[in-house]
Write a structure and sequence with these properties.
- It is built from 10 helices and 16 strands.
- By secondary structure, it is of the alpha/beta class.
- Helix 1 crosses helix 5.
- The radius of gyration is 20 Å and the shape is globular.
Length: 352
């Protein structure tokens, strides 16, 4: 398959409406299109076409019990897809849509089980990104879209990441520049009596509780799901975000963290492994003689979130075999950062 790769103006995608219209035609004919959102790049198909959705799973090598998110371009498009819109959902929609928040509802019959991962619920998001929004409007359909990467690999925040993983496997890639947030959307289940955080993201737990009051946190946010448990939302069950290298997180006091990472990296290097360290602006100069990947500043956690997947992918580009990553406090945005980092490391964590 020849994959079409076309650039669009991030700020004014109407300038490149011919690209958008071509992508919409591909989606309408059952094809696959990767496109930018404010979180990560998505791999889109007609979310109401079960056969097209199955092609997403094939292209990604994704397990079919892992639910997909339906993307809409207007709140009115929500109603046909769900059985009801609870009051808690209305409050979150008013506060955070369009934006990096996915809500889980009881699904309407029109939504195929191929999209919902076999569940009676459906995940829906109204993205803020202008390219994504225009594509959905032009295609005139809800677009089912997980991250546009090979399943298990770090999520793509640039079109080049998508090309690296999926060129030749999908019909088209829309290059709309780098993604603003760099982490997938926050996911909240509003299908029950008490809203539950299933995946942390840029809309933090504190922000959700400011709007709703009580919000519970699913155990999969901080721990690994056991065998046989069905994932309620994307990214909950399987190993995710992983480079080819072995990743180990070291967390605790910063001085102790730097000391332990240096010790481990020296040992790996002596054993002949190409070794990398994921560090922050505040600590990067304390690691001498190693390949240091600077993820961002602890003073500005949004920079860490935006660069996390980029740095994990860079490990592969640099053929790094062992990676030691500094850990972060699991509060607010740090909860989302550590959720992704722990999955990338397969929950290999050293506390110091």
């Amino acid at each position: 398959m020849d994959t079409i790769i076309s650039k669009v103006d991030f700020a004014e995608p109407l300038k490149d409406i011919d690209v958008i219209e071509k992508a919409a035609e591909i989606l309408q004919s059952g094809g696959l299109v990767a496109f930018p959102t404010e979180t990560v790049y998505g791999l889109g198909a007609n979310g109401l076409n079960a056969e097209a959705v199955k092609d997403i799973y094939k292209a990604k090598g994704r397990p079919s019990d892992n639910p997909l998110i339906l993307h809409i371009s207007d709140i009115e498009e929500l109603k046909p897809l769900v059985k009801e819109v609870p009051e808690n959902a209305k409050k979150l929609i008013k506060a955070f849509w369009p934006g990096p928040l996915t809500l889980i509802f009881k699904k309407a019959d029109i939504v195929p089980y191929a999209t919902s991962g076999g569940l009676e619920t459906v995940a829906i998001r109204f993205p803020e990104n202008k390219v994504a929004n225009l594509l959905i409007k032009t295609a005139k359909m809800p677009i089912a879209a997980p991250s546009a990467n090979t399943s298990g690999r770090p999520s793509p925040t640039r079109a080049s990441h998508v090309e690296y993983d999926l060129k030749g496997k999908i019909d088209m890639i829309i290059d709309g520049g780098s993604c603003e947030f760099g982490l997938e959307s926050t996911i909240v289940d509003v299908s029950g009596d008490v809203p539950c955080l299933l995946r942390p993201g840029s809309i933090t737990l504190g922000m959700l509780r400011d709007v709703l009051g009580e919000v519970t946190v699913d155990k999969a946010v901080v721990t690994k799901l056991s065998a046989g448990e069905l994932p309620k939302a994307p990214g909950m069950k399987y190993t995710h975000y992983s480079p080819s290298a072995d990743v180990v997180i070291v967390r605790g006091n910063v001085d102790n963290t730097v000391s332990k990472i240096t010790e481990l990296a020296e040992k790996s290097k002596a054993e002949g492994y190409r070794t990398g360290i994921i560090a922050t602006e505040e600590t990067k100069d304390r690691y001498q003689g190693f390949e240091v990947l600077v993820i961002g500043s602890r003073q500005h956690p949004e920079t860490i979130a935006a660069n996390l997947f980029k740095m994990l992918r860079k490990c592969d580009y640099h053929n790094i075999q062992k990676v030691y990553a500094e850990g972060f406090e699991e509060t607010e945005l740090g909860l989302a950062i550590m959720n992704r980092l722990k999955k990338a490391a397969g929950y290999s964590i050293i506390d110091v």
